[in-house]
Amino acid sequence: MINTYWKEITENHEVRQNLSKLRQEIKKEGTPASLLYVIAGNEDKLIALLQSDDAKTRKNAALLMGELKKKEFLQPLYEAYEKEQQRFVRNSYLVAMKNFNYRSYMGALKQHLEEMSGVQVTPENEKHHMEELRELSALIVAMEGVSTHAFRGWDETYDIILLTNRNFAEVTRKELLELEPEAKSKIFGAGVMAQVPNLRWLQDIRSYQEILFQVKGMQTCTMNPVQAAETLMASELMEFLHKSHKGKTPFYFRIEFKSKRPLDERSTFVKKLSGQIEKKSDRMLINTTSNYEVELRFIENKEGNCNFLVKLYTLIDNRFAYRREVMPTSIKPVNAALTVALAKDYMKEGAQVLDPFCGVGTMLIERHKAVPANTTYGIDIQEEAIEKARANTEAAHQIIHYINRDFFHFSHEYLFDEVITNMPFAMGRTTEDEVYYLYKRFFQSVSKYLKQDATMILYSHDYDYVRDMAPDNGFEIVKEYELSKKEGTYVLILAPL
Q: Residue 218: is its pLDDT beyond 90?
């Protein structure tokens, strides 16, 4: 079909449509190699289409040249961009240029951006004007990178939200008040809302999932992109960004829109809103799909309006930086940290600790951070998991002894004070029957490793197995916490009967 479409183009038959069909064929094949072979020696015929009287033909030709990525196309593309009068076509040349080394045109692209930023356009041209601005910015950022800002606002006062496990926001609130007694805080549906005099405590709270900022003056806004952008820029957003960062504007942002609306509606809203924010901020805020520093989070409420929060990617979260290696079955580090926080009163300092299904070591590392243990062992049947656990533990500057072995073939000279583990669950090739059998063997054999007053702390996806098997094997559940009803996860604390 590629030969047919190209032949019809060279014969000036349905050129626009056949250009579009060629682009579809390239996408289908996943490579432009076939078309490059067909047009070899006749590239000038494709280049000539950039001078077509039909605007859509020029647009399709430009996009096709970009997808072919043949370096000889770059200069004609840029020259056509300079001459193009149709606003809806101009953007296509810039999209095509992304696939080339356009460094020699950077000066000219910056000049175009500067000139366009101050131009007043009519409402009917605004959409295409903003699209061209965005593509110019994207080309410049892709070549030069973002001039990132350094966070410096550790000692400023903020209104924040700490998103947490919905069932245990009080755990995080308690940690906050212990570290920062001057914080004014309250629990709400998704976590902890607080006003804090500084952020010096932030890296020491391990149970929160995410920190977001509330900006003064940012009231609930409508779903109208123009009005939402005006509300945003009327707030203290720019003051907030400047007081907490070193460096000048622009700041690079992305929009996260939380809504139950269909994907196409959400995408349209985000695209329009991004353009309006750039316009209303005089490009002190620039939208980008990568290397962004700020996330502007819009959350649609029950009334159909939006609440607004800010996430800073300049505020680096190093709490779990040790976890450089993971596996598909690995527990989320924040869930391991929450497990440890919930079970903390049942742990003792200097305990001999065993994790029979240790994975990449996250649970043992978090346990030691909360309550320092003595000799600690991690066992896992997968060699890859043990290797990754050792790497993570070294990064955490801890000492944990890891053994690549089936737990049911493990033996040890002395008994342990505590078992803490993320119990295996049905996933991938692991079936429910296999998990049931593993639980059964675990409860039948674990006692031989434990002291008489030992504690077991289990993070489990299979509460019923623990409830049914524990009593028959000499254990009782002394405390249980439902972490997620949706995921079926529990933290269960057991002691000998």
A: no
Nearest to 203 by CA among 176, 168, 243: 176
Angle separating helix axes 55-68 and 15-29, nearest 10 degrees: 20
Residues 6+ apart with CB under 8 A from 265: 259
Q: How far is CA 423 from CA 189, 329, 418, 458, 460, in A?
A: 29, 10, 15, 7, 5
Whether 355 and 419 have beta carbons less than 8 Å apart is answered as: yes
Instruction: List pLDDT tens digits, range 473-490.
Output: 999 999 999 999 999 999
Please give the distance of CA 75 from its chain centroid, rounded to a whole number: 37
In 25-102, beta strands by DSSP E: none
Phi, psi of 60 (to 5 degrees): -65, -35
SS3 state of residue 209: coil
The phi and psi torsions of 245 (rounded to 5 degrees) equal: -140, 150
Quick: pLDDT tens for 359-382.
Answer: 999 999 999 999 999 999 999 999
Residues forming beta bridges with residue 213, ordered by sequence position:
160, 310
Residue 245: closest CA among 314, 196, 292: 314
Residue type, 199: L
pTM for this predicted structure: 0.81
CA atoms within 13 A on the CB side of 390: 11
Q: Tokens 């972490």 label which residue?
A: 483
User: For residue 192, what are its two tokens?
Assistant: 């902890």
Tell me if 337 sits within 8 A of 401, measured CB to CB: no
User: Could you tell me if 177 and 185 are in contact, meaning their C-beta atoms sit under 8 angstroms apart?
Assistant: yes
Give the rounded distance of the alpha carbon of 134 from its chain centre.
22
List, for residues 125-169, the tens digit of each pLDDT value.
Answer: 888 888 888 888 888 888 887 667 999 999 999 999 999 999 999
> Using CA atoms in the order 235, 241, 244, 250, what is the torsion angle rounded to 10 degrees?
-160
CA distances 262 to 117, 220, 276, 298, 377, Å, are 32, 21, 21, 15, 49
